[in-house]
Amino acid sequence: MKTIIEPFRIKVVEPLRMTTPAHREQVLREARFNVFNIHSRDVLIDLLTDSGTGAMSSLQWAAMMQGDESYAGAESFFRFRAKVQELTGFDHILPTHQGRASERILFELVGGPGKVVPNNNHFDTTRANIEHSGAEAVDLVIDEALDPRCRHPFKGNIDLAKLEALIEDVGAGRIPLCMVTVTNNSDGGQPVSMENLKQVRRVCDRHGIPFFLDACRFAENAYFIKVREQGYSNRAVRDIVREMFDLVDGATISAKKDGLVNIGGVLLLRDDALAERASSLLILTEGFVTYGGLAGRDLEAMTQGFEEVVHEDYLAYRVRATEYLGERLLDLGYQIVEPPGGHAIYIDAAACCNHIPAPCFPGQALVCALFREGGIRAVEVGSVMFGGDGHPPPLELVRLAIPRRVYTQSHIDYVIEASAAVFARRHELPGLRMTNSPQYLRHFTAEFEEVG
User: Fold this and answer.
1) Do residues 379 and 359 touch, judged by C-beta distance below 8 A?
2) pLDDT at res. 391
3) Closest CA to 193 of 220, 163, 157
4) pLDDT of residue 441
5) Contacts of 289 (CB under 8 A, 6+ apart)
6) pLDDT of residue 375
7) Alpha carbons 382 and 397: distance in angstroms, whole number
8) What is the full DSSP assignment across 270-336?
9) CB under 8 Å to 16, separation ≥6 — which residues?
10) Which of 116, 333, 349, 359 is most buried, taking the most CB atoms under 10 A from its CB?
11) pLDDT at residue 440, rounded to an integer
12) What are the C-alpha distances in Å from 16 to residues 20, 45, 70, 403, 407?
């Protein structure tokens, strides 16, 4: 069937607030041209992030009613742990309030000055937590990932030759772990192949380096392996998920993505000694080990979410709906990161706004234009997010992240219509000057003014 049918029925609705161009212009200027500063009531279609913005199922809401809010030993934790063990095979399972809390605990323990952490591409909070510890975050994605037009099926792969060269250069003793992000959020939501994960495992074993996943979108990555990698088409997604986790020594997970919840995270560890230290730090900064900064009802929602996310009708819909948006934007003339990823479409803003020089933030200019035109909130993934060290990233992207089970095809068609209007006058868009640049994660709170 060509029609994209959502594999669910809508049971509860939330009204959208329609806005006028004049109102949006006022709101954007009051926000200092940073859409993070805009009140959600002024946003019509919110594609800022897919993290914690999804709609929970009726079974998730029902599960929340049995939340055990005991401080220690809550039954909700043990149901949560059993589900995560079933999916991942890990014994040391620490709940946290979200993914960056897992990252902070991990890198406070293994990071530090002089340490180097390789990845295919670190996303913003991962990089920030590594650098906050004093360590260096290094991106080693394959070269194909740097060409938006390249249709390599696994552009999220880490470059093994680059990894070997880094180990040779700095020494294995300075590398506390090697991490791979699945899917690769910073570079178009591109998946990582199972073969690449196996090869990284072999490299790490040769040098005695632990291997970790940033596994926020583990189910989407597993689905791409099923449909794109030879030998996996007849494998169940949940079995592919287990194979991925069996390859690694640990993982950080933001359950706000493939946990299908609005809050929650997980830290997975195999090493007993590291798990004991992480548990102590968890108690100090998050909460007791059986709730980790979450309510029992949140643990129940996560438990059900981790079950639903490996349902293959959901994943097929999820990936196809994202692909639909990407195809229509290509038809309009936009260059996107090809092929479309799982959770978002990434527009090549440098190509779209080639009249705006890089220091004037063409990605942020396009973000502002989409909001002005249709009340659509997107996010820049480029020199605002990653250029704070004076070294601009190789790609200047705008991400349209699609919340899970929130918008219908009609909403996406509206995004396409607004994008068409922006594309028609793309050469008229003004650049921006940053007037306030915070030290960490500056894209969240930076302020701008327009320049001619």
Assistant:
1) no
2) 73
3) 157
4) 75
5) 94, 279, 282, 283
6) 98
7) 5
8) --HHHHHHHHHHHHHHT--TTTTT--HHHHHHHHHHHHHTT-HHHHHHHHHHHHHHHHHHHHHT--B
9) 44
10) 349
11) 72
12) 13, 9, 37, 15, 11
C-alpha neighbours within 13 Å on the C-beta side of residue 218? 34
Residue 317 neighbours by CB distance under 10 Å = 17
Q: Sheet holding 344-348: strands in order across?
A: 344-348, 397-401, 379-381
Q: Of 222, 212, 295, 236, give the one whose Cα is nearest residue 261.
A: 295
Only one residue has tokens 């108690």, namely 283
CA 432/CA 329 separation, integer angstroms: 24
- Name the CA radius of gyration of the chain, rounded: 21
pLDDT at 338: 96
**Calpha distance 421→298 (Å, rounded):** 41
Q: What DSSP letter does each residue of 388-440 carry, written as one string?
A: TTS---S--EEEEE--TTT--HHHHHHHHHHHHHHHHTGGG--EEEEEE--SS
What pLDDT is attached to residue 452? 74
| Residue 323 burial by Cβ neighbours in a 10 Å radius (0-12, 13-18, 19+) | middle
At position 202, the amino acid (one-letter code) is R
Please identify every stretch of the chain with a pLDDT value under 70, giving residue numbers as ranges. 1, 388-390
pLDDT value of position 186: 85
pTM of the model: 0.94
